[in-house]
């Protein structure tokens, strides 16, 4: 597996309870989410809104880089990287 | 150190004829049940812990015993979920059921109302959402469509968000007149369709908009709640952002009925299941303070169509009770005498089993209550259910639209 996606707890009901999913070889974050959707439908559908945007209070990191600071969903994925889906520190 | 995982709540124990309360809070859904005497209550929850639940509904049509809820997360969005076993399990389709179509150019923020349709169309359901829009389902909730008549209404672009956002929070389905739907939006006001939702007309004549230069515009009022009577649906009551109104012509005209109340500002409203002249409100001090006047928690009841109002206080705190009851946090059951229920922002849940004459604190310490719905689970519903083929466990599996734009 070239890329691993870390699944936050609230989405693990849609990933069969798994916190880490290995993907074959997605080239970008968008492709990773697409592949994730095929493997575990329900995860990507909650990370993205119906317009295809990352929800405002969700951060996606490739390694240590927030994709908002790189190329967003088009951010390329280096081999053997880790993609972390993390809810922002927000709420009330 | 992270806390332990929350346990799954035990399902609600429900017998034929019980009253069920669906209590949506800012941190999950709580379910309550009681026998017809409504003296003691059992609780199950929180379901969807950490999620706000502004909308919930019970659908007992066609032999169902289905709970609907709209858990919403600031992180993961809003979705519809349903349970056919009183919360033992919830179905949450992989792709959230209610989503704006791509051409709408909008993103769902919250679901504010779930309304079963007419009894003779038992697979019809409606959702009011934020940003203000109406969604419809004709297949018992398996698929949903944006109502294009209202979404395309020329007024919509001029609607403005209120304190709770720009939300369509009330959907009334006329049980007598097929094709008549009435909705309310904050702000925007009341809109009615007489052709099943194809076209919509503003129905705000007589309703004030104190925050506008023209205080009687055609639309733009901040209507907080409307209720109608199932047996006499031409009779409606309206709790406005300043103002209490009654209509006897299905919303064509509204008459001011704010006499004898400490404030005509408030959010919630209920109507008696048998008597269209009886309605319930909880006045709040003002749009600035938004708490019960004088620190007294009082339900006001009219028994003469708004001709006068009476404070119903027995069992409610009358000192230092600065409470807030929001727009959907009051519900009425269908029994006689009627059960009336409301929840507060401070997490108290009160019940009356005698049409608001006296009150009992069912529970305190809940998260802020934003939704209270009451239903009677009929024995007929149960027996029909046993002989019915269920399709409710079907999980919708579709590719996310999101990827198209990715």
What's the helix and strand layout?
The complex is a heterodimer of chains A (92) and B (406).
Chain A: E1 3-6, E2 20-23, H1 29-39, H2 44-47, E3 58-62, E4 65-66, E5 81-87
Parallel strand pairs in A: 1-5
Antiparallel strand pairs in A: 1-2, 3-4, 3-5
Chain B: E1 19-25, E2 28-34, E3 42-47, E4 52-59, E5 66-73, E6 77-78, E7 81-83, E8 110-116, E9 125-130, E10 133-137, E11 145-146, H1 148-151, E12 167-173, E13 181-186, E14 189-193, E15 201-202, E16 223-228, E17 236-240, E18 244-247, E19 255-256, E20 265-271, E21 279-284, E22 299-302, E23 310-312, E24 330-332, E25 340-343, E26 349-352, E27 360-363, E28 369-376, H2 379-386, H3 402-405
Antiparallel strand pairs in B: 1-2, 1-28, 2-3, 4-5, 5-6, 5-7, 8-9, 9-10, 10-11, 12-13, 13-14, 14-15, 16-17, 17-18, 18-19, 20-21, 21-22, 22-23, 24-25, 25-26, 26-27
Describe the model.
The complex is a heterodimer of chains A (92) and B (406). By secondary structure, chain A is of the alpha+beta class. Helix content of chain A is 16%, strand content 24%. Chain A has helices at residues 29-39, 44-47; strands spanning 3-6, 20-23, 58-62, 65-66, 81-87. In chain A, β3 (58-62) and β4 (65-66) form a beta hairpin. The longest helix of chain A is centred in the middle third of the chain and has 11 residues, at 29-39. In chain A, 40% of the residues are buried. The mean pLDDT of chain A is 95. Chain B has helices at 148-151, 379-386, 402-405; strands spanning 19-25, 28-34, 42-47, 52-59, 66-73, 77-78, 81-83, 110-116, 125-130, 133-137, 145-146, 167-173, 181-186, 189-193, 201-202, 223-228, 236-240, 244-247, 255-256, 265-271, 279-284, 299-302, 310-312, 330-332, 340-343, 349-352, 360-363, 369-376. Chain B is mainly beta. In chain B, β20 and β21 (279-284) form a beta hairpin. Chain B is 4% helix and 35% strand. Chain B has a four-stranded antiparallel beta sheet, with no helix packed on it. The chains are: A alpha+beta (92), B mainly beta (406). At the A-B interface, α1 and α2 of A face α3 of B.
